[in-house]
């Protein structure tokens, strides 16, 4: 399936319409701010905005939510560089050399290179998106119920496996999510399941309320526990541009880590945090001056920044082509766009090519807008870091409750919201990964239907797993995704025991 230039041009023309430019700018701006504020993240911002998107055109809503996601990748490094406090997991690697640069009086240069690296990573990833998305969508047309069921099993396994050191907790979270997805009327028999006689639960627990509760209410509750924690001293910004020597040191790290981040982002369950750490580690290994890493090496900042923004773009590929989110944030976006009437999957590219190409072009425009925003207005943006948490968090809670009420105009949703806010708080305290629960709630019902359809054709679990070369391949990938962390953990433990024995 080749690229139809007519759709590309039409998509670009729609993307540059004033209302879409507005959503790109608004999403990028909000994403930058959310990314900057420690303790929040793009998933929280998108969860809060879901009710607002209901009245929007689905394409514009997708553009807005995507701009928040990759905008947060730009903003996340601001607090990492200036305060040594990452805005979210994707920005952790930016503290390694970004903060030391700020301590040396190079904060402005660090902020500039993080924005430039994010731009290059984002543009590289959009090109990768164009090249990979359509072949992957074409491949996904071969999927039947058995293949989709095994794909969902693989995705859930991959997300659980990435909860390093907490796989059991990941399985528990996934199990709770799958159980929640069974509440409501059985779609095949019409039987009420686990509703407790509550008519409001006939359609199941609204996963959007679950998302808002865990990501918004739970995060705010958790942040209240550490609200008096002192932050690092904010450094003066200084000159906001890089020298020719710094450009020469960073251009290749940015270019080679963009594709790496993109490919990591495509993998289910991976994301910006893993992509940036891989890129930082790789860049240190290939550097001619590895001893400078951790002391303010500018390429040690550029590489992960390029990578994490590329990963945020790559995460949209499995979501749009197969309906499987590549990260926790895209899981939230998937839930939102399904509610808006879009059906992500292989046929999306055939049925809605105008929407797909408008979205792709919007990412090009959004990345260019964001680099301008993050360099030209950096002095203004960093003042947001001075916002007192005691002012910010009540506003987020108010928006969460208002947004939840507008979903179904039901007071019962308030109870569900508070319950899942508390669940999110407990999960955060006990260090349970949230993504497996959210993903299981979203795909659980579809997964159950595909399993039941598969068992009509294949009369056993073995028959389902060996139904086609695709299902066999997915079974192998599932085994690898679960076995690899266990194997590496065992090897590390053995190596440690050997070193202690010597």
From TrEMBL:
Keywords: Membrane, Transmembrane, Transmembrane helix. Pfam families: TctA. It comes from the Bacteria. Residues 21-439 form the DUF112 domain. The chain crosses the membrane at residues 21-40, 46-70, 110-133, 145-163, 170-187, 207-225, 260-282, 315-342, 363-385, 391-407, 414-442, 462-487. This is Tripartite tricarboxylate transporter TctA family. It comes from Sporosarcina pasteurii. The lineage of its organism: Bacteria, Bacillati, Bacillota, Bacilli, Bacillales.
